[in-house]
Model the fold of this input.
Amino acid sequence: MRSFERQLLTFLGAALLAAAPAPALAAGAEEDAKTLFARGRELRGAGDCERAIIAFRSALEIYPEGLGALRNIAECEEALGLYASARRDWWDLRRAALQSTEAKYAGWSEDAEARYRALGSKVGTLTLEVQGAEGRQVRVALDGKPLDPRLLGVELERDLGAHTVELFYGGAAPLTERVELTPGAHRVVSLTVPPPVPARDAPAAPIAPAPRSSSSGLRTGGYVALGIGGAGAVAAAVALAVRAGAVSAVEGGCAPSGDGYVCPPSLQGDYDTGRTASTLFGVFAGVGLVGIGTGVTLLLMSPSSPPAAQGASAAQGAPAPRGALPSAELSLAPWPGGVGSRLRVRF
Done:
């Protein structure tokens, strides 16, 4: 059969079912309920009340007017020791029998009420309490099912046996307590919410080192500039000495020619060395002058210690306090084969 034909037949069947009279549907439901009811009676007769309850429940869902299924459920639960469940079903049967107009259910409300009261001394109760939950979101579960907060502190009928109470309060794991209900027992389970864990003290912020004063930066820059200038001066002096030696060799072995000299090939190297030394002298001399000038300027710009403090330090023979202006001295002196330089800085 093609898919289209199958869908068409399904649609027609649903339309016919919807068009069927309500009494016909009710009759079909009643017949199915009778079949399930009979199956439940067989299981109960065989001593299998647990499976019989399932069959009776199915029959009652299909045909709620069949109160016999509800009565058998209550009787099976009572036989299994499920007194709390039996009491609820006996009370439901009492209410349904009072509303029914079927003659066969006459007197059932009185029987159901009598059984309900008779089981009152056998049923166990649980009262759940939560302490320390002021202003906190908590949730209680009984046997894995959430408990309505309005039922906290209320005596609850529960079947005999073990029950698990869980308190969820936002911790890593819920608080759990197991309680065993015995016939007629009235147990109170009180759970206390642990106090909130105090937040750890925030680690103290590391103390940042105090920034150096601008005067310290000026002094440091001045020392660096003086060092560079001194090195440039020394290099210029060396280049000057090398040039002087080369000039002396050229003048002694070369013949003057116009603005230059005519040198034999053996003195060409001295001639080139002299020219290179002249160029380097100009570079290093410029670096030395700029460095020394910058260093001295920076040192002069940095504030010095008060004269009184300097005088006291000098009188006591102590070194000058930090912040005192250092003195620098650059001198050029004759040196074998040329001119030498000397840089002295006193702090």
